[in-house]
Design a protein that fits this description.
With 141 residues, the protein is mainly beta. The protein has one domain: Lipocalin, CATH 2.40.128. The chain contains 1 helix and 8 strands, in the order H-E-E-E-E-E-E-E-E. It is globular and about 40 Å long.
């Protein structure tokens, strides 16, 4: 009985810790339809946050390439592409990195932070954060 209780407590603790982190799988939703268009995995590498597209829900876009991207990303598949690079933890947000919008091929400075346990705020901008756009990703259940 004690062993079962210990396992349940450990599982509950693990789930609560995971729900309070930016790391994991997130759904990106179309702003007009609110339908999930992709799943993004945010992960940590060498103390920095990165994210890549791990799923595209529109079957006709499975093999889409970033034709508007420049440099080494040009004409590479969007599926599997890193779109968030090099963010460092700064208090309750992660900043100092960049985010790529594969729809227009442009990179922006950005910061991300949790907005509740299942909602991630992403702010992309040029120059100052006041001149930018905010998007939200939702934790994949």
């Amino acid at each position: 009985m004690k062993k079962t209780l210990l396992i349940l407590l450990f599982t509950a603790f693990s789930l609560s810790i995971n729900a309070q982190t930016i790391f994991g799988k997130w759904e990106n939703r179309d702003e007009e339809t609110n339908k999930v268009d992709s799943v993004i995995e945010v992960y940590e590498k060498d103390g920095k946050a990165y994210a890549k597209i791990i799923e595209i829900t529109d079957q006709s876009r499975q093999k889409a390439v970033c034709d508007k991207c420049s440099g080494k990303r040009k004409n590479n598949p969007i599926l599997g592409m890193n779109i968030l690079t090099g963010l460092e933890k700064d208090g309750d947000e992660w900043s100092g990195g960049k985010i790529l919008d594969p729809k227009n091929g442009k990179e922006y400075k950005c910061y991300i932070k949790l907005d509740g346990k299942n909602k991630l705020k992403i702010r992309g901008y040029i120059g100052f954060s006041a001149f930018g756009r905010t998007a939200y990703w939702y934790r994949k259940s």
